[in-house]
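Fold this sequence, please.
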Amino acid sequence: MIYFTQLIYIREGQEAVFHEFEEVAIPLISKYNGKLLLRIRPNEGSVIELGMEKPYEIHLVQFESASDFQAFSKDEERNKFLHLKEKSITASILIQGNKL
């Protein structure tokens, strides 16, 4: 099992465009032996300490293997909508990990 945490930073005013991409991408995760475990949109009251810009969303996803994640990343249907992600996101940080 492999885990990915993604911190997502959105261009101001592009939230609806990002949501449109997510409506396509999130359901595809399960097609590749993955599962969205957590999706958080942090607000000022939920942040205890901050040493960086607060992300718009945080995702925690698990896949059976790195190759499953790579297959998800290359999914044809997902790739048709990547322009929405590129239009709406200023940056994202992807952190790979394993359960200890």
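The mean pLDDT is 95. Residues 15-28 form the longest helix (14 residues).
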